[in-house]
Amino acid sequence: NAGVTQTPKFQVLKTGQSMTLQCAQDMNHEYMSWYRQDPGMGLRLIHYSVGAGITDQGEVPNGYNVSRSTTEDFPLRLLSAAPSQTSVYFCASRRGGFRTGGPNTEAFFGQGTRLTVV
Amino acid sequence: QQQVKQSPQSLIVQKGGISIINCAYENTAFDYFPWYQQFPGKGPALLIAIRPDVSEKKEGRFTISFNKSAKQFSLHIMDSQPGDSATYFCAASKGSSGSARQLTFGSGTQLTVLP
Questions:
Q1: Judging by beta carbons within 10 Å of its beta carbon (0-12, 13-18, 19+), is residue A70 exposed, middle or buried?
Q2: Which of B93, B100, B106 is closest, CB to CB, to A42?
Q3: Alpha carbon separation from A62 to A48, A97, B1 (Å, rounded)
């Protein structure tokens, strides 16, 4: 199994350009999410999905769109890139979608996409 | 509002020493506390996790100590090795009626173990 696969690994964008970060998982996980990692700030949740056709906003959603048409794929779209979106982006997945109570199951992360907006 | 505060930001330890990373949380509804380990160029990976009904959990050289009354938990790495050099994140999550659980991460600690 490949786990969680992110593409591309590196990307440089000009301000105002748009692009899509790809994320795919082959573990049949219901829950998928996108985080951004910035120095000294840990990982912050951008958007998440509890299953195909269902998405919701996280802590820092502005400037990003997501969709979930299949269980496997969860792309993140930057509509009009800004320098403030320079970051390392991680996609993660785990079993369990719309559940209440009980501990999280393990979250599996991709290797990240390093994005620079100039 | 930072719900999980992590310290120190960086830590340098000699080989064979004990590495200690501390986290404090504010929301008493948190009921699951994992630690993630991240090597350069890689995504975070689950290292060890604890629930608040126990005060300590040990897995090999890694131990989580949990103090519910103080709302603090810490990661202890015994006999630290150069291969443990990585960034460590504490996290917390809580159940929420009608909504999926989310992980709230600390700011991370960059651990360097000197040979």
A1: exposed
A2: B106
A3: 13, 23, 17
In Å, how far is B46's CA from the nearest CA of chain A? 7
H/E stretch holding B26 reads none
* pLDDT in the model for residue A41: 87
- Tokens for B5? 């505060």
Q: How many CB pairs below 8 A link A and B?
A: 70
Rounded percentage of chain A residues whose pLDDT exceeds 90: 78
H-helix segments, B1-115: none
The structure tokens listed for A68 are 């979930």
Looking at residue B84, the DSSP 8-state letter turns out to be G
The DSSP code for A31 is E
**Nearest alpha-carbon partner for B14 in B84, B106, B65:** B84
What would the two tokens of residue B15 be?
């080989």
Rounded CA-CA distance B60/B44 in Å is 19
Please tell me the distance from the alpha carbon of residue B4 to that of residue B9, in angstroms, as a whole number: 13
DSSP A57-111: E-SS-TTEEE--SSSSB--EEESS--GGG-EEEEEEEES--S--SSPPPPPEE--
pLDDT in tens, A30-73: 889 999 999 888 999 999 998 899 999 999 999 999 999 999 99
pLDDT of residue A100: 41
Mutation pick from B53, B105, B110 vs chain A, by most beta carbons of A within 10 Å, is B105
